[in-house]
TrEMBL record:
<dbReference type="InterPro" id="IPR002376">
    <property type="entry name" value="Formyl_transf_N"/>
</dbReference>
<comment type="pathway">
    <text>Purine metabolism; IMP biosynthesis via de novo pathway; N(2)-formyl-N(1)-(5-phospho-D-ribosyl)glycinamide from N(1)-(5-phospho-D-ribosyl)glycinamide (10-formyl THF route): step 1/1.</text>
</comment>
<dbReference type="GO" id="GO:0004644">
    <property type="term" value="F:phosphoribosylglycinamide formyltransferase activity"/>
</dbReference>
<feature type="site" description="Raises pKa of active site His">
    <location>
        <position position="151"/>
    </location>
</feature>
<dbReference type="InterPro" id="IPR036477">
    <property type="entry name" value="Formyl_transf_N_sf"/>
</dbReference>
<protein>
    <recommendedName>
        <fullName>Phosphoribosylglycinamide formyltransferase</fullName>
        <ecNumber>2.1.2.2</ecNumber>
    </recommendedName>
</protein>
<dbReference type="GO" id="GO:0006189">
    <property type="term" value="P:'de novo' IMP biosynthetic process"/>
</dbReference>
<keyword id="KW-0808">Transferase</keyword>
<dbReference type="Pfam" id="PF00551">
    <property type="entry name" value="Formyl_trans_N"/>
</dbReference>
<feature type="binding site">
    <location>
        <position position="66"/>
    </location>
    <ligand>
        <name>(6R)-10-formyltetrahydrofolate</name>
    </ligand>
</feature>
<feature type="binding site">
    <location>
        <position position="108"/>
    </location>
    <ligand>
        <name>(6R)-10-formyltetrahydrofolate</name>
    </ligand>
</feature>
<dbReference type="InterPro" id="IPR001555">
    <property type="entry name" value="GART_AS"/>
</dbReference>
<comment type="function">
    <text>Catalyzes the transfer of a formyl group from 10-formyltetrahydrofolate to 5-phospho-ribosyl-glycinamide (GAR), producing 5-phospho-ribosyl-N-formylglycinamide (FGAR) and tetrahydrofolate.</text>
</comment>
<comment type="similarity">
    <text>Belongs to the GART family.</text>
</comment>
<dbReference type="GO" id="GO:0005737">
    <property type="term" value="C:cytoplasm"/>
</dbReference>
<feature type="binding site">
    <location>
        <begin position="12"/>
        <end position="14"/>
    </location>
    <ligand>
        <name>N(1)-(5-phospho-beta-D-ribosyl)glycinamide</name>
    </ligand>
</feature>
<dbReference type="InterPro" id="IPR004607">
    <property type="entry name" value="GART"/>
</dbReference>
């Protein structure tokens, strides 16, 4: 059984997609052992509790500096002995120590077709604002392994989503989540759990 820790900063819709996929048999051979957030108010923590999954907050505000926070975050992740760490809207830079601890065992979902609209500064609505400003006709989402760069690790899955006339960043964000993110993130976890994407 693949032990999964999901890290999330906000509402946790990608987390919910993972939990629904496990419940519905679309992900086999994996279980979510814990949900960790940097944000005490993250609704993702409520989603975890409702599912009977340990929900933990490790906030940078509770530590004197970033190095102390990074150490605490890594120690908390290690407690759950994950085989896979899933960044599902986690808006904190993963410390190099964690990447070294879990090489090839951390994946991230990014709301564009990498290499477009990715890297430093591209997160959340900013990605969709940039896509609309550039006038692209197709956007999408990417699941990739995490390395020490930003959105630079090997790609596992991508799914394209049409950009429609009249789209706002919010409308486009929702469509990318519904049509791409909530499909390919569970699929990537299932592939890893069943050793079909290594």
């Amino acid at each position: 059984m693949l032990r999964v820790v999901v890290m999330v900063s906000g509402g946790g819709t990608n987390l919910q997609a993972i939990l629904d996929a496990i419940d519905g048999g679309k992900i086999t051979g994996a279980s979510v052992e814990a949900v960790i957030s940097n944000n005490r108010g993250a609704y993702a923590l409520e989603r975890a509790k409702k599912h009977g999954i340990p929900a933990v907050c490790v906030s940078p505000k509770d530590y004197e500096d970033r190095a102390a926070f990074n150490r605490a975050l890594l120690e908390k992740v290690k407690e759950y002995q994950p085989d896979l760490v899933v960044l599902a809207g986690f808006l904190v830079t993963i410390p190099p120590e964690m990447i070294r601890e879990y090489p090839g065992k951390i994946i991230n979902i990014h709301p564009s077709l990498i290499p477009s609209f990715c890297g430093v500064g591209y997160y959340g609505l900013k990605v969709h604002e940039a896509a609309l400003k550039r006038g692209v006709k197709v956007t999408g989402a990417t699941v990739h392994y995490v390395d020490e760069g930003v959105d630079s690790g090997p790609i596992i899955l991508q799914k394209a989503v049409e950009v429609k006339e009249g789209d706002t960043p919010e409308i486009l964000q929702r469509r990318v989540m519904e049509e791409a993110e909530w499909k390919i993130l569970p699929e990537a976890i299932n592939r890893i759990a069943n050793e079909t994407c290594r």
